[in-house]
Amino acid sequence: MAEIPFHALMVGWLALVAAAAAPGPNLLAVAAASLGSGRPAGIAVSLGVATGTFGWALATVLGFTLVFAARPELIDVLRLAGGAYLVFLGARAIRAGLRNGAAAPAPQAIRADLGQCYLRGLGVVATNPKALLFWTSVAALVVTPGMGIAVAVLFAAVSMLISTTVYSVYAFVFSLPRLRARYRDFAARLEIAFGALFCLFGARLLAGR
To answer: Residue 126 — pLDDT band, cuts 50, 70, 90?
Structure first.
């Protein structure tokens, strides 16, 4: 049985924490539902987002593993592209944070049917055209030679748990006016910090891990 590359997995999970916590379509969907329809709606959207996270994580890591096995000469190309994209995301986040330009979620009343809220979260992830680029970059951080399906499933499952936790916390934050105000005070600083992490991970890939 191949050894589980916990160090590589941890790097991927840390990148996911930064991406989930930073402002973006997933966070805006959770925040809007929490503001407009309350905490249960926000948590339901969070679960939908987390399900989409599992799908993207599993698909890209398995895909990268197959590429590793069949066309090893493409790995460096994919890593360079993934690294460049992470640096781009990081630089953009830092610039937005310096300009205090984090998008402010608007309240959005949606039906109380939690199933519909769940599907809304899933739809946000599934229809985001930048998700494939991001998850390809994360897979480039995570995949190592000989990685098996069980490890890919483990990575995807923990990624789903991380997504559920982060976005559920945001659903709680945005459902309470006092916490919501505190988040707004620190949003720009958080975006700069997460942007710096993206740049670090991108540099790691560009440098050949």
So the answer is: confident
Directed axis angle between helix 177-206 and helix 6-21, to 10°?
140
Task: Report CA-CA distances (Å) from 139 to 15, 64, 142.
Answer: 11, 7, 5
* Region for residue 38 given its phi and psi (left: phi exceeds 0; alpha: psi -120 to 50; beta: otherwise): left
Q: What is the dihedral of CA 69, 72, 75, 77, to 10 degrees?
A: -140
Neighbours of 159 (CB within 10 A): 27
pTM, whole model, 2 decimals? 0.83
Q: Which of 55, 110, 68, 91 is nearest to 194 (CA)?
A: 91
pLDDT digits (tens, 9 = 90+) for 128-178: 878 888 898 888 888 887 788 899 999 999 999 999 999 999 998 888 877
Instruction: Please report the pLDDT score of residue 145 as a whole number.
Output: 77
DSSP for 43-107, please give it: HHHHHHHHHHHHHHHHHHHHHHHHHHHH-GGGHHHHHHHHHHHHHHHHHHHHHHHHTT-PPPPPP
- Enumerate residues 6+ apart whose C-beta is below 8 A from 112: 37, 41
pLDDT of 171-189, one tens digit each?
A: 988 888 776 666 666 667 7
Rounded CA gap, 106 and 98, in Å? 22
More confident residue, 72 or 165: 165
Contact 52, 121 (CB under 8 A): yes
Give the burial string for 29-54 (b: 16+ CB within 10 Å, else e).
bbbbbbbbbebebbbbbbbbbbbbbb
